[in-house]
Amino acid sequence: MTGKRHPFLLHQGLAIGLLALALYALSTGPYPLSFGDILRFLTVSCGFGDMPGERYALLYNLLVEIRLPRVLAALLIGAALAVSGAAFQGVFQNPLVSPNLLGVLSGAAFGAALGILISGSWILIQTSAFFCGIAAVAVALFIARSFGQSSLLLLILGGIISGALFSALLSIVKYTADQENQLPEIVIWLMGSLSGASLPDVLWLSLPVVALIAALCALSRWLDALSMGDDEARTLGVPVTFTRYGVIGCATLLCAVTVSLAGMIGWIGLFIPHVARLLTGPGHTRLLPASALLGAAFLLLADLAARQFSTQEIPIGIITELFGIPVFLIVLRHVRRGWNT
Amino acid sequence: MTSRLCVKGLVFRRGGRIILDHVDLEFGEGEILALLGGNGAGKTTLLRCMLGLLRPDAGSVELDGQPLGTLNHQKIAATVAYVPQAHIAPFPYTVDEVVTLGRLPHRGLWGRASARDRRAVEDALRRMGIEALRYRIYTELSGGERQLVLIARALAQEAKLIVMDEPVSGLDFGHQTQLLVCLDELAAQGIGILKTTHHPEHALFVATRVALLENGSIQQNGKPQTLLTPEGMERLYGVRVEVLTSTNGGKAFVPVFQRTGD
Lengths: 341, 262
What we know:
The complex is a heterodimer of chains A (about 350) and B (about 260).
Chain A: H1 10-27, H2 35-45, H3 53-91, H4 104-118, H5 122-146, H6 152-176, H7 182-190, H8 199-218, H9 220-226, H10 230-235, H11 240-262, H12 268-280, H13 284-308, H14 316-335
Chain B: E1 4-14, E2 17-28, E3 32-36, H1 43-50, E4 58-63, E5 66-67, H2 73-79, E6 80-83, H3 95-100, H4 104-107, H5 115-127, H6 143-156, E7 161-164, H7 173-188, E8 192-197, H8 200-206, E9 209-214, E10 217-222, H9 224-227, H10 230-237, E11 241-245, E12 251-255
Parallel strand pairs in B: 3-8, 3-9, 6-7, 7-8
Antiparallel strand pairs in B: 1-2, 1-4, 4-5, 9-10, 11-12
Helix pairs in contact in B: 5-6
């Protein structure tokens, strides 16, 4: 949309900042590297220049095998959660909505716990979390549809019911789990962690995440109209049902992917869109990309903090909530502008 | 060809109750049709049917001879615009962004803003006299200003027909009058307007035709001067009404206040 807001190149600036942050994240750790080291490693691996084989092997191990998957996972998950949150807020015409509104996180939590209960296999836990997350949203939509209308209120009601159902199921799984090994594993898993991400996993999952974010960006203009209200969107020529379910579908898949990769990471989906809206205004064409960049940066920072504050790593879900709350409170002072509260 | 929106034998039920019972109504370019009726008479339901937001149980709504059900929303939106009651949007869009939404039916999902889009937006803002509000936040405006912004959006939509739900509700005395003058000018420029209203004197001032909706059916449809009489208003609203005529010929409908037991 046209507008006099922020004529400077906001998104480009954010992207450059994010890149610098990612480089910094690659350079820090128990074995610190300089930017020069990273740059040399990059040029050598592109076939220019030379480096002792032993040194190259060390850098390869540190950068590509250990740090890169983690950094990429943080970028991917942060961006996915923030975009998913912004899209949910737009489609539900409410700035206080989080991606868990339709129960995707509750479903995924149950799925992961079930996976841990049945077997410890990482791939099974991931798959189970992903599909149960989607199943929870499907249940919410089914409940809303079974009342005959797809009004926002019924969708939210469906989400509450579905979320409660899967929370109850999660409690059953926790109760029946072996208290020595499985229960702690479930609890820790639910706190979220980026340490389990492997490079192939991250690379493979980056494809759907990027595609889904692109799909949501493509729907931005319809989402703008829809965020003003159903009737208005329809009389502006927007296919409301298609847009609503399309956006819910994409945002849900994004969320489910993040849970299957790193467990529950809260708050990003709720408050990053508010920060982004302060910078770009509410138009989704600009808001969604800005949310993606800010979400990625925030999770990367949170992960850096999780790694640095203690030798025993703190689960990242705890960090995002601890950091997210003060940031949200600061943002809230500015955000209320235009809410008519 | 000039555009017309025609309602033919429209029946709408909700939960078995008949809300609209064989309604016939039409309006076209250059006309201002005022729809009057008491609370619960079915005005809003009729409006929503005419916009294609509700599907009638029987009968049809036709835009230029084609049933709305066979047209997609983008096609309808290129001709018919909707001006809801000034509302509070959940997000702080600028006035410019809200009015630019009116270009959506022409511009599509991915089209970039063309020179024509920008001109239409500027033109709409100018015609409503709100250029100064362009970069203000829509949600921070007064109710009257927001109503003007929503009409500007309908103009940016380049709609030939505009459907308005009680456009003066919530406006102060001065803004009400300004808005009526503005509607009169739009009709003179060839735009067709259908509006619901609770103010018979507004209809008398600005409407080219009035329709009286009672218990879900159009009881009368004709010239404002012949239908907007004390007797007509008494029937419609169930209270005794007197008409006062001012020195310049303007008319005011005044209810005769009666306490029960008087």
